[in-house]
Design a protein that fits this description.
Layout (H helix, E strand, L loop, with lengths): L1 E4 L3 E2 L2 E2 L9 E5 L5 E5 H16 L4 E5 L4 H15 L2 H5 L15 E6 L15 H9 L5 E3 L15 E4 L3 H6 L1 H15 L9 H11 L3 E2 L2 E4 L2
Parallel strand pairs: 1-11
Antiparallel strand pairs: 2-3, 4-5, 6-7, 7-9, 8-9, 10-11
Amino acid sequence: MAEIVCNNSRLGHFYFPEASKKKLVEVGGYYNRREYLHREAAGAFKRMREDAGKEGVELVLISGFRGVEVQGELFNRQIQRKGGMAAAARWSAPPGYSEHHTGYALDIGDGKRPEWNLKLDFAKSEAHRWLTEKARGYGFEQSFPANNPQGVGFEPWHWRFVGSEDARRVFAIPRYFTQVVELYSHSGLLPTNSGAGILFSLCEDSMGKVLGGVRFSPR
């Protein structure tokens, strides 16, 4: 049985420890930047990028592993832009709560439409169309689709690798959470509105209960 620990979520995001540097490998990033991914994700991304290129689609790695310190800097910038932590968390995870800490998450862009990278317009790109159709075959899935139960803003560029047992274990809680919320929303047992509030109300209302094979704990 999976367990969601309620105080391990913050502003719609779940806690993730930093990956060991020994498990990270360098992957060529955009503009010749050095980006790093967990070795499992790196191998899968390289294969995916190569196969997409054969079909005329240019996938580029914009961002891979990101440590807690760098994430804190990014989150603070978002607070200044958005005017508060809750608004900032719609588009940036608090430090310690980013999937990028794992080395399994990455931001992908379209080398032929760089003006759309890291923007909602990326959803209109050939790269995103290709990813939507074929990324799952390489072990990747979109972390934050539109109207996701965590209440995080739609990020068409943000993908995570779940193609190995270790990777699926890392993302077990957010993946189970999404499944449970969708199951109970469809059954009418949970509100259907999206937003970070559903995360907290689910935890608060479900402490000590088991929903869909997932135990919600108030630790």
